[in-house]
Amino acid sequence: MTTNDDRIRTTHIGSLPRSPELLDLLKRRQDDDHVDDAEWDAAVADATRDVVSRQAEAGLDVANNGEQSRVSFNWYVADRLSGIEGTREQELWADLQEFPDYAEETFKTDVIDLSQHPVVTGPVEYTGRDEAEAELAAFRDALDAVDADFEDTFVTAASPSVVTATHADDHYGDYEEFLFAVADAMAEEYRIVADAGFTLQIDAPELLTVGHTAAYADEPLEEVKGATRLHVQALNEALSEIPEEQVRLHTCWGSYEGPHHLDTDLVDMLPEIYEADISGLSVEQANPRHQHEYRAFAEHPVPDGWTLIPGVVDVKTNVIDHPETIADRLERVADAVADGTPLVAAPDCGFGTQAGIGMVDPEIAWAKLEALDEGAAIATERIYG
Prior knowledge:
With 385 residues, the protein is α/β, with parallel strands linked by helices. It contains 13 helices and eleven strands.
């Protein structure tokens, strides 16, 4: 994935702020209103070029397209998988059920309704090659136009189990059958990204969020870990044709500003996550609930050959993290991991995982990424001299 030969590199986790114009087009598409193809293509091209340019200005080493054309990091698959039709109201996560008034006021959006899950009503197959290739082409065009000197580029894709966790099943009736059907379908998207030469980032928050979902909140830890083992097994099947060195994985406890008091402990879940066929791992380390969990990497060392991508910028608050604080977070992770483990600094999660729900003001998000670059430079000086 990378090496820390002289400094700590920087990246982000996929989604970046979208313009008001693009949000309006996404809403119209979600509402099945007509959107002219030429207008859509031009808006996506402009937005992608803008976020690529701003990543270069912020000093990031590893960049992507900001997921500009996607309505969310997970529900975009409705445009690429067959068998998805309609929505159904879903139960709140267990931590939010204890604070329903807060949840009702916080999770409203003009673009998508997070209380409703898309419904799988037929066989799931991959039908999104044209959409995927159009997204990659727009990204390549933006890279050519900006002519930035990034060390690497990546493209995100939903994990099989985040699809099954956020889509209601009215077709399969058996969870494992549903899960592995999605894995088989998403494998095609993973190949498209890898064959295009980009690093593939798998977005898999459910590997950690499973513990505070309504289905598992009251289950013993071994049941929670068993669910994660199954999800990793499905992911590995989907990645079977992708070289491990071309895959990084992001997991988290859910990119939402909520209580999070029922989150699983990282130290309990790392051994299960380490079974994934990847070479880079991104995990939250900056938000108030999980800043202490750098110790988990001392108890369960990062596998040989892997790059650790610790989240060192909070994405749930409009406070701009101080560069010295960012450096502190990086330094304590560096102290916990084995010598020689490569580190790449990143935010905890994306800044626009769900279109229309922006916890962080767009301009503050960019300021946070600039602070990330400054903090990584400070940490580099402290650690490498």
